[in-house]
């Protein structure tokens, strides 16, 4: 994965929502690194590895949304410092791949 971080969205609010069977999380753009085939994010709660998740991302360029399904491949940290979660997307549509690639390469990807 080539890491790219989305810059601050200001008035656009939360840019990413992560939902699984046991939890749901809304994240600001400053907490998420977007890759062409996955994301990394900081979470106050842990996520179990190999958990299936649904992620909804809002593009910083035009506000469009892309919804992706994936699996958590890593979660490290503690309740005191927070958790760094890595997620790999599965079964991406060609349109979702294109949108994620644009997000990862955009000016908002610098960081």
What's the helix and strand layout?
Blueprint: E1 4-5, E2 16-19, E3 24-27, E4 32-35, E5 38-43, E6 52-58, E7 65-78, E8 82-90, H1 94-105
List descriptors.
disordered C terminus, mainly beta, disordered N terminus, 45% strand, 111 residues, Thrombin, subunit H
Task: Give a written overview of the molecule.
- This protein is mainly beta and 111 residues long.
- It has one domain (13-106): predicted glycosyltransferase like domains (Thrombin, subunit H).
- 11% of the residues lie in helices and 45% in strands.
- The chain contains one helix and eight strands.
- The chain has one helix at 94-105; strands at residues 4-5, 16-19, 24-27, 32-35, 38-43, 52-58, 65-78, 82-90.
- Strands 1-4-5-8-7-6-2-3 form an eight-stranded antiparallel sheet, covered by helices on one side.
- The two termini are 15 Å apart.
Overall residue-averaged pLDDT value? 76
Number of strands: 8
Examine the coordinates and then state which fold CATH places here, giving the name of the CATH topology: Thrombin, subunit H
Backbone CA Rg: 13 Å
Low-confidence runs of at least 5 consecutive residues: 1-14, 107-111
């Amino acid at each position: 994965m080539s890491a790219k971080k989305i810059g601050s969205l200001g008035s656009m609010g939360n840019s990413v929502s992560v939902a699984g069977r046991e939890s749901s999380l809304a994240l600001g753009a400053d907490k998420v690194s977007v890759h062409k085939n996955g994301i990394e994010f900081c979470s106050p709660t842990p996520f179990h590895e190999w958990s299936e998740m649904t992620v909804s991302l809002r593009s910083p360029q035009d506000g469009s949304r892309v919804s992706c399904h994936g699996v958590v491949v890593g979660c490290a940290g503690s309740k005191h410092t927070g958790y760094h979660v890595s997620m790999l997307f599965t079964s991406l549509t060609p349109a979702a791949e294109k949108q994620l690639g644009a997000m990862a390469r955009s000016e908002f990807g610098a960081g």
